[in-house]
Amino acid sequence: xxxxxxxxxxxxxxxxxxxxxxxxxxxxxxxxxxxxxxxxxxxxxxxxxxxxxxxxxxxxxxxxxxxxxxxxxxxxxxxxxxxxxxxxxxxxxxxxxxxxxxxxxxxxxxxxxxxxxxxxxxxxxxxxxxxxxxxxxxxxxxxxxxxxxxxxxxxxxxxxxxxxxxxxxxxxxxxxxxxxxxxxxxxxxxxxxxxxxxxxxxxxxxxxxxxxxxxxxxxxxxxxxxxxxxxxxxxxxxxxxxxxxxxxxxxxxxxxxxxxxxxxxxxxxxxxxxxxxxxxxxxxxxxxxxxxxxxxxxxxxxxxxxxxxxxxxxxxxxxxxxxxxxxxxxxxxxxxxxxxxxxxxxxxxxx
Length: 351
Ligand code: NAP
Ligand code: F7E
What we know:
- This protein has helices at residues 13-24, 45-48, 68-78, 92-97, 99-120, 153-172, 194-207, 227-239, 256-266, 271-274, 295-301, 309-323, 331-339, and strands at residues 4-8, 28-33, 58-62, 82-85, 125-131, 176-181, 184-185, 213-215, 221-222, 225-226, 245-248, 254-255, 275-277.
- It is an alpha/beta fold.
- Strands 3-2-1-4-5-6-11 form a seven-stranded parallel beta sheet, sandwiched between helices. It has a two-stranded parallel ribbon with strand order 7-10.
- The longest helix is centred in the N-terminal third of the chain and has 22 residues, at 99-120.
- The model has no long low-confidence stretch (mean pLDDT 95).
């Protein structure tokens, strides 16, 4: 029987790869999108535009993660086997400017959907997009048993959602799991996150349409992986008989400056000539060092990613060269081919 999945946040980076993966497994996929005065479906248009064709099992519905009534109605209508809750105000820096809204979407939104599922029949499997940001100032390496010490309104909201997911599991026996994902990036990463900002700037500098790249803290360290591998992990988590909380990461970390160096070296650019620091990008409280321990994920779902940070820098830079009308350098394209991620498509409208 065809399985049915519902994805909140389907228009985001992760949602766009997850829907491709689930469609490749012959799922019927439903996604919640926000009404906007401009188009916000850029990452999934290559799938959605075909949805009038009879063989595309993708259905989009307007809604908002803070709107319990709408979520509840949709869940009753769709009767999903699996729900992936990826919707969030996901930008850490922005969460300091909008702490209350971040709490409504990133924290209370999770309760809306959990409660809607419980009132439906409680049988749907639920995935919560938890984050390494919850660890905050806890020393690396961080694992499922590391104590959370969140350092932003975003991270505090994610801690709330983490525990709500655990609580619905314990209180109502729901199959509700947390994937505690460390940073994962891709050509489809939002333009204001640091990796994409760097690779996009490298391409634009090469093209001659940008001279300087303004950044904040270059010293913080992150455990950066490649998104298509992580969405497969999300799926694997929901295939387990019992719900779990699992860290997904690469087990290696690098500073923002190191990532910048990899990209600029690959693009044959000198960082000293193009980088400027703008304190506007500093955060009131920073997360200094994240490095995930994935022992539990290896043991429970056999998950271990292949793409390292240097490969990631090459993949993202090649794509931004393409997007800016330049010939890609080529190594990133080859890595993608070698990985055989044949369910990921580069949307035509993003080139
Ligand atoms: P993203 O690109 O920022 O996507 C966020 C998605 O949430 C978008 O589809 C967005 O819709 C939607 N959304 C935001 N507010 C909403 C609301 N009020 N109602 C309905 N939808 C709403 O984030 P991502 O990188 O794909 O991450 C996916 C999830 O994983 C997020 O929850 C994020 O916090 C979490 N996470 C991400 C990482 C990472 O490294 N990427 C790591 C750990 C956890 P619009 O397109 O309309 O804005
Ligand atoms: O920052 C520093 C910044 O915004 C990474 C989200 O997906 O991953 C993401 O959160 C680091 C920070 O990602 C700039 O201070 C320097 O130390 O790319 P980011 P993030 O904050 O790690 C986690 C796991 C999530 O869950 C989140 O949803 O880079 N940095 N200069 C900068 N960051 C930005 N954005 N822009 C700069 O100019």
